């Protein structure tokens, strides 16, 4: 009986010791500090919408009272660059050729339009957002030839960034705006309206 009693006491001693260690470990995990905010936190993959509008008095009157319709868009953000694998350009091409059906045929022939834009990040004072100062480069598109056997034409689009972009920690939300300010077709300026791209995307977890 004495031997059994000692074994029982030993078992309970181990059980209590294990419980203390486990609770201590959990408390340490709960109290471990979160990593400080870093400008690298903006990196990741995103999906969301892009609202494309053209700045002309006519379209402003036509679209008055209408709810804006965005297009699906995805992006990959690295430490200094935002990459778009499928930048929507139908509105831009339509403004160049002047015909929506022709523009859609051209967009189909061009395929997916890839575009990347560099940026410099900075944390705001409250450290709950990251501001992104963009440095856009021209977008180059190769239009297919109108007649088989002829060479296609190169479209060069001057892109600017009217405002700084922002990444909000609370919603993992990335917002940025790009503007197509000038279009050249084979080196000749084409009179087209300014096209604005407003991106509103959420970081995938």
Textual characterization of the structure:
The protein has 205 residues and is an alpha+beta fold. The protein has 2 domains: 32 residues; 165 residues. The protein has 4 helices and 11 strands. It has an 8-stranded antiparallel barrel. The longest helix is centred in the first third of the chain and has 30 residues. The chain is elongated, with a radius of gyration of 28 Å. The N and C termini lie far apart (59 Å). About 7% of the residues have low confidence. This is DUF4840 domain-containing protein. InterPro entries: DUF4840. It comes from Bacteroides fragilis str. S36L11.
Give a brief description.
InterPro entries: DUF4840. This protein is an alpha+beta fold and 205 residues long.
